[in-house]
Specification:
Radius of gyration: 19 Å
Order of helices and strands: EHEHEHEHEHEHEHEHEHHEH
Distance between the termini: 51 Å
Bound molecules: pyridoxal-5'-phosphate
Low-confidence stretches: none
Shape: globular
Mean pLDDT: 97
Structural class: alpha/beta
Number of strands: 10
Oligomer: single chain
Largest sheet: 6 strands, mixed
Length: 320
């Protein structure tokens, strides 16, 4: 039995987006609300952390250590899970302490996480050093991988696919923001294990197409092994569009601003500037280009991240 804690608010609902669909003159649009998974404003990390925190507990760990960007949703949710289950938490964040502490960083601090700052080029090294120091002090550290994306974390999305299939609302396409790849890998494996016939399109947030395809295929295969299923995945079985990643990680362009604004004004839904804003911008562009058939059903799998809306860096562009 693979250990799992159950704290996510599941199943997440699937809602129709008829006004957005009408405004875009597009296919039928649905949204799966994984921004409502619970745990510190929810998001895709909750499902991954059910397995990762259970593994940490089963190993007798006392401290969760992870790394990410200054406004990392993964770090915010890991810090919350640590607080909830009685671990200490150390976060290695890339950047420098900002003049004003806002959004996810503010929440990291509220959850009592210790923050260590590093440069991007030194991230892996700093993480390793922090881990070793913590171990040598007897703090029993457990390393939560970047983005929660290893075979343990990806299990969360294998079972998310099972949940989606059991909701019996068929979709021809699932569109999802993809970055460290665990979410897409879990869905791709889950689709094969539980039998979802549609397509899963990852909109790359920050990686070139082939890098992300390779990462997702490898992770899906490894996660299959973790489940004792012999299932191999090749790169070309993983659908990725990286056209929208060109501006770079965390750079909010007019396309993300428009996507955030369309979801807000037509559906009363909030996206985030980094991940779901970019994935939705990609989906909207693909709709306009006629990529989907008019009678397709396209499900936007919302992975959360909205606290970043309140990060200082995005305020000027969003406040109009
Ligand atoms: C809100 C949000 N959506 C999507 C993703 C991407 O998920 P993954 O890293 O599993 O590809 C992240 C990752 O940090 C995220 O925070």
């Amino acid at each position: 039995m693979i250990p799992r804690l159950k704290f996510a608010h599941l199943p997440t609902t699937i809602e129709a987006m008829p006004r957005l669909s009408g405004a875009l003159n597009g296919p039928r649009l649905l949204v799966k609300r994984d921004d409502q998974t619970g745990l510190a404003f929810g998001g895709n990390k909750t499902r991954k952390l059910e397995f990762l925190v259970a593994e940490a507990q089963s190993q007798g760990a006392k401290t969760l250590i992870t790394a990410g960007a200054l406004q990392s949703n993964h770090c915010r949710q890991t810090a919350a899970a640590a607080a909830r289950f009685g671990f200490d938490c150390i976060l290695v964040l890339v950047g420098e302490p900002p003049a004003e502490t806002s959004a996810n960083l503010l929440l990291d601090q509220l959850f009592g996480a210790q923050i260590i700052w590093t440069k991007k080029s030194l991230r892996d090294k700093t993480l390793q050093e922090v881990f070793e120091t913590s171990a040598s002090k007897g703090q029993k550290p457990f390393l939560v991988p970047y983005g929660g994306s290893n075979p343990t974390g990806a299990l969360g999305y294998v079972f998310a696919m099972e949940e989606f299939i059991s909701q019996n609302i068929p979709a021809d396409w699932i569109v999802i923001a993809s970055s460290s790849g665990g979410t897409q890998a879990g869905l791709v494996l889950g689709a094969r294990v539980f039998g979802y016939p549609g397509k899963i399109l990852g909109i790359s947030v920050d990686e070139p197409k082939h890098t992300l395809q390779r990462r997702v295929a490898t992770l899906a295969s490894e996660t299959g092994k973790r489940m004792e299923k012999k299932m191999g995945f090749t790169e070309d079985e993983v659908l990725v569009n990286s056209d929208y990643s060109i501006p770079g990680y965390g750079v909010m362009t007019p396309a993300e601003v428009e996507a955030i604004s369309l979801f807000a004004r037509y559906e009363g839904l909030l996206l985030d500037p980094v991940y779901t804003g970019r994935a939705a911008a990609g989906m909207i562009d693909l709709i306009r280009k006629g990529f989907f058939n008019r009678n397709d059903t396209v499900l936007f799998w919302h992975t959360g991240g909205q606290p970043a809306l309140f990060a200082e860096k995005y305020q000027n562009d969003l406040a109009r």
